[in-house]
Amino acid sequence: MAGEHLLSTAEVAALVARGFLIFESVVPPEINTAALELFEQTAPIDLMRDKPTSGTPLSELYPEPSPIGAMLRLPRVQGIITSLVGPEPVYDHDWVHVREPGDVLDQHLHQDAIIDTTLAFDIQLFWFPHDVAAGEGGTGFVPGSHLRAVNEADIGRYQNLVGQRDITGPAGSLAVFHQGLWHRGRANHGAQRRFMYKVRLNPTGPQVRCWDLADYDEVHGDRSDHIFASYQDHTAAAMFRRAEPWHEAATGRLETVNRSRLWRYLTADTSFDADWYLTRTEGRERIDRGTD
Amino acid sequence: MQRQQVLVLYLATSALDTPVVGWSLYDGAAGGPTAPVEDRPAPPYQTGVDALRDGWRLIQASPLLPPDPETERQVSYLKHEFIFEKLVEIE
């Protein structure tokens, strides 16, 4: 995989911190057009397409001719996928989501699948093959919600959270979500059907440093990056300590800790820390165990 | 005849006078579907106390519970949920 198609360390750290990345106009017009022709045939319920079998390697998905396969085989899309779930992920499932014009109901907020217990994570790609303006059904999501241990629709009571967003952008835009990001289908006040293709991919091995490492040393920093002592403003730790506006004051610190734990997994650096939270408690735990 | 309106506020801490970080409204006096999610939302009140001063009656507040062992650092559902009501007259 050529380095220019991979994500940077800063981009991967941003996904760890906030749970999403958005790339505008990644998919070219001819693939978007072919996809819309296909989706018009399969809408509104995506049960008419031949779908791959769960567990199919990414490299075997949707052989030519297929607009979905063409999208997935784009070098930039391959680079994004490889950076986050490694070079050999497998297909979980996909779906073409349709919001009809005039559909004014918002879906309840939810997290996909079931409550998650692992550091290893899946990604979900959200592909919009046409322009999506504000109010026209772009998927709603809650930045920084991906590490919350909740179970699917149990969060449906949460109607509005400060800082929530809707995906908007030009045709061919792609959003990438950590599996845990809270999201919902949004009302479509526009005049056109809104199509969105979503595919979930599972890693098959450790997701350790699969991205472009050119900026690794600069972004990774070290565990002494501590807001109450000496700190940097451009490092992974700086991203991890930045609370979302809906994070409660104290829980926001736990978000920093959980982001740091995920970063340790992705970098295989078990000493990484942001704001000394893990380091100080691990030191005391060693004392308690009599191993220090 | 009276109907209940329910306002759920999620606050930044357990104190009722801290900022609103999330909210939901269910209106028993209105017909049709639940009011849509707002595109660029701003909280209806700055704090929980502001809701009291606007006539909302607090009927439930989240208890402060210690975490279960081994889950002390887990983040999950919003912790500081305050449920308010108003009773309104309908025709």
Provide a descriptive summary of the structure in words.
The complex is a heterodimer of chains A (292) and B (91). A five-stranded antiparallel β-sheet of chain A has the order 1-7-3-9-2. Chain A is of the alpha+beta class. Chain A contains eight helices and nine strands. In chain B, a hairpin with an 8-residue loop joins β1 and β2 (20-27). Chain B is 7% helix and 35% strand. Chain B is built from one helix and four strands, in the order ββαββ. Chain B has a four-stranded antiparallel β-sheet with strand order 2-1-4-3. The mean pLDDT of chain B is 92. With 91 residues, chain B is mainly beta. The A-B interface holds A 104-106, 134-135, 140, 147-150, 154-155, 157-162, 164, 166, 184, 186-187, 245-251, 254-255, 257-258 and B 8, 10-13, 18, 20-25, 33-34, 36-39, 41, 43, 73-80. β5 (160-161) of chain A pairs antiparallel with β2 of chain B, so a sheet runs across the interface.
- What is the string of helix and strand elements of chain A? HEHHHEEEEEEEEHHHH
Radius of gyration of chain B (Å): 15 Å
Q: Return the structural class of chain A.
A: alpha+beta
**In which order are the strands of the major sheet of chain A placed?**
1-7-3-9-2
First-residue to last-residue Cα separation of chain A: 43 Å
Provide the succession of SSEs of chain B. EEHEE
Instruction: Enumerate how many helices of chain B there are, as a single number.
Output: 1
- The oligomeric status of these chains comes to heterodimer
**Main sheet overview of chain A:** 5 strands, antiparallel
Structure in a nutshell:
Chain A has 8 helices and 9 strands.
SSE topology sketch:
The complex is a heterodimer of chains A (292) and B (91).
Chain A: H1 9-18, E1 20-23, H2 29-42, H3 67-72, H4 75-85, E2 90-99, E3 123-128, E4 140-141, E5 160-161, E6 165-166, E7 173-178, E8 183-184, E9 194-202, H5 216-220, H6 236-240, H7 249-267, H8 277-289
Antiparallel strand pairs in A: 1-7, 2-9, 3-7, 3-9, 4-6, 4-8
Chain B: E1 2-11, E2 20-27, H1 48-53, E3 57-61, E4 81-89
Antiparallel strand pairs in B: 1-2, 1-4, 3-4
